[in-house]
Amino acid sequence: MFRKYLLPVFAIAGFLFALWMVLQGGKPVPPAKPIAQPPRPPYESKISGAGILEAGTRNIAIGTPVAGIVAQIHVSVSQHVQAGAPLFTLDQRKEQALLLVRKAALVEAEASLQRLLETPRKEELPAARARVKEAEANLRDLRFQLKTIESLTDRRALGPEELERRKFAVEAGKARLEQARADLKLLQAGAWNQDVAVARAVAARAESELEAQKVEIERLTVRAPVEGDILQINIRPGEFAQTGSLSEPHMLMGDLGRFHVRVDIDENDAWRFDPTAPAVAFVRGNPKIKTDLSFEYIEPYVIPKRSLTGESTERVDTRVMQVVYSFEPKGLRLYPGQLMDVYIEDTTSPSQEKSPAEKPEGAP
Question: Per-residue pLDDT tens for 90-119?
Answer without folding.
Answer: 999 999 999 999 999 999 999 998 888 877
